[in-house]
Design brief:
Two copies of one chain form a homodimer. Chain A is mainly alpha-helical. Helices cover 77% and strands 0% of the residues of chain A. The first copy, chain A, is built from ten helices and no strands. In chain A, helix 1 crosses helix 7 and helix 5 runs parallel beside helix 8. The first copy, chain A, starts with a helix and ends with a helix. The relative contact order of chain A is 0.10. Chain A binds a DNA duplex (30 and 30 nucleotides) through helix 3.
Amino acid sequence: MEETAAQRRRRRLRAEVTRRAVALFAEHGYAGTSTEQVAAAADVSRSTLFRLFADKEDLLFGLEDDLLASARAAVAGAPAGLPPWAALRSAAVAIAGQVAPLRDVLLTRERVVAGVPALRSRAAAKLRRWEAAFAEGLVAGRGVPEQDGLLLAKLVVACFEVAQADWLAGGPGDLPDLLTAALDRLPGLLEA
Amino acid sequence: MEETAAQRRRRRLRAEVTRRAVALFAEHGYAGTSTEQVAAAADVSRSTLFRLFADKEDLLFGLEDDLLASARAAVAGAPAGLPPWAALRSAAVAIAGQVAPLRDVLLTRERVVAGVPALRSRAAAKLRRWEAAFAEGLVAGRGVPEQDGLLLAKLVVACFEVAQADWLAGGPGDLPDLLTAALDRLPGLLEA
DNA sequence: CCCGATGTGGGACTCTGTGTCAGAACTGGA
DNA sequence: TCCAGTTCTGACACAGAGTCCCACATCGGG
């Protein structure tokens, strides 16, 4: 099943609407921007808006969904000889490289999300989907026990999160390097 | 500042309303239960309901808030000689002991939350508040660097979560033991 | 050219969450 | 005991989110 023309149009429309919505939120605040205003700014009806996005929050979090699938694949597809943790590391670093070009959008979103508890919940949920994706890659592609897979995934996402916060805040180096540094710090922390 | 009579009454009222709300949600589903029905079942007005709880979701998640503060204290108050990770471990195991008697309520809640994405977001956010509490205990009470504290907190919460899932699902042993087991498994996972 | 399927806009509706307001209940003090 | 100030409560009105339904446009295949 290739990708139909309709699907392609839908994706482009989603991306465009997202772009304008984030801009509006950044300017007038999240609560201060109604879905009607977003719809108007994006030249669609409110009906269509809710057909494209599950809810208002989805306007902010629908961006990196493509990467989720590739995360799962990257874990499962790592060299077969690698032990689980090493495979996970390499996959995470690879994803980090793909996240890099999104820095500006992520920064803007971060600023909007920070002030709204409901959005921070949603962000947390998003991270759990990352955990699930990594875990599934380990379990399905490498036969890692389910509990161990989930635990490992949580570890790597925790490092990712810390590294990304550092990176967005303007820390030195690019995201993959910061992530590697965080991952390397892990064993030492458990001993101390 | 002792606790005023008004504060005590408010807490008891909150607990009672929560009890009835969870029961309603379990019976008719979360979406299928309006805040008006909850208010009626709890013999308060809708106004009062929203004065007691921030929002509808809070009816499910306001239960363990007391434990959050005690988590922070438990970390900061662990024996001064203990290294950070060991202090964190002992605090977490202590908290696990206090969670144990809530098993039934937690199970009911789990069943309601499982089917509603928005509630799962909220649950994720709740876990992050635990992370923040543990991290703050480490940073404020023991001078651990902020990033390390957050990372360690995430590790311990990840273990807690895995252990609690196991415990609620009927795994063998009580929560503190399961938590200890998960914590012990951590170093091995990083090497393999 | 027609026809069914899919996408879109419009509008009505329910429910959540906020704000206001008047009155009830409780407080400490004369 | 009564009074004045404060706090709590219920009733109501309102804006916005999200759902539903229907009429209309648009498009690809016979």
